[in-house]
Amino acid sequence: MIQNxxxxxxxxxxxxxxxxxxxxxxxxxxxxxxxxxxxxRIEIKPKQGIKPQIxxxxxxxxxxxxxxxxxxxxQEEKLLNKNQSTFVPPATLHKVENPGFIPLIILEIQNxxxxxxxxxxxxxxxxxxxx
Length: 131
Description:
4-stranded antiparallel β-sheet; 1 helix; 11 strands
């Protein structure tokens, strides 16, 4: 946790980070993390995507920075371009794909009471209908 000496002790403490994780579909960089939120930069390679998943304790807001996103949220599927956004409520099966030929860059804001990686279930894990 980072808190400078000039900060108000009652202000929320946040952690600025350059942590990143490479996955088969691209990479995730944690930009900033607080008690109930995380701001991430997600880069998805062309013709790749993140498998369907569900979170019970957090919502996600995605803003497209570059490229085109094919987003499925619940039963709704849509294409999003640069400067467009979408909201993923808690307990909603969702996935995102990059149908394009350039990397898809997304700014993701996670917000909730619990942000742990163990709050991710995938359809094969939880016997949900596939998207």
